[in-house]
Amino acid sequence: MAASEPAASPAPRPRLALEVALAVSVAVAFADSSIVVLALPELYVDFQTSIPGISWVVTAYNVAVVVASLALLPFLRRVRPAWLALAGLLLFLTSSVVCALADGLETLIAGRVAQGVGAALVLGASLPLFVALGDRRERAIGIWIAAGTLGTCVGPALGGVLTEAFDWRAIFAVQAPLAAAAIVAALHPRARALPPPSPVAERVPLGAAPALVFLFAALVGALFLAVLLVVTVWGYGPLSGAAIVSALPLAALAARPLSRRLPSPADLAGGSVLLAMGLVGLALLPASDPAYAVPALALAGAGLGLALPPLTRASIPDHGESGRSAVVSVGVRHLGLVVGLLAVAPLLAAELDEAADQATINATAVILDAPLPIQTKIPVALDLYDEFQATPEGEIPDLARPFDEHGAEDDEAVSQTRDDLLDSVQAVLTRAFRSSFTLSAVFALLAGAAAVAFARRSPA
What CATH superfamily classification does 11-201 receive? Predict the structure, then answer.
């Protein structure tokens, strides 16, 4: 009997390495929901496509995760979790390579769909594997939740760093070796020995599902809208944009320990309210300045760090087989992202169309009112027009260039006119995001209401 004991549990160090590899794959799968957001401007230029077309690079992944999660449920009792994870990791690895090498938008979107299917398989099988590799169910669930929370929050910042350091293809290139490392964990003898779940139907906890849907719909404001505002409207590069939006994951991680100390209704309601307050802060930014955006993002991140862990934990049963609950939890999260994207995208598009007209009027007024001689004013205005005409669709025109070419560096009046014009245009476009941020804040409050209702129905 004693001779068989070492085989019952992997040694601490190898087990830790396997858990880390699997946790990284879980974090990457969650991060992929938003990891390409900071690369969207570069994708616009490379593929010369429309905004609705490029938005499918984000939407296709999330839709694929939702559909694959639902389709996976009937098969969970027939397949060992290790083989399910292995299939998902191989598909995720292959599709990541396809995305990295994509030479057209259609290929990239197809790769993103395949990534979403692979991610659904990995996320559905990973929780039982954590339980199999570890010695305590509570610890395994905690690792899965922490990896998911971290991945959800750091996606945009991580994508921004990779895009700035290399290009958008690096986002997908680095995912392939990470998936390969997780394959080792799926092939571990203890993981492969884990049998399929019991054929007896398991009751999946659904009480937290509405709150999770609304919470992730609200995250569209913090993860997507904020990034588009900072990079597309304010003109920050991917690395600078990543530094700004990193306030969200840092605050979320800092708030997680507090979530464990608060009673259930307090962490759920408080987290949702903080998230809503952060989104309202983004809606009411007094200026196009990171000094105002960073505190609002930090507030939203703190709210997420308080509300998401207990909601995720509530979606997974304390006893019995956990695979089906994990799959449903994953599907519900991504359904929320899809709902948020579908609700916010048309609203933002309509607001930006109106704002573009107003920005043109304001820019014209700035030029006309500028204390510049007519021999400077006319060439600047003509060059501004040429800049708009020469800018490819999807790319932001460099409104500062005409002024710089006409002496802004040496002429204070030209320099001041340039700054006034940029401030005017940015202010109008920033205000165009208000309705979308406000709608996201409404989703956060709905998440809080649903979470509190669920907490009151649940036994203490």
Answer: MFS general substrate transporter like domains (1.20.1250.20)
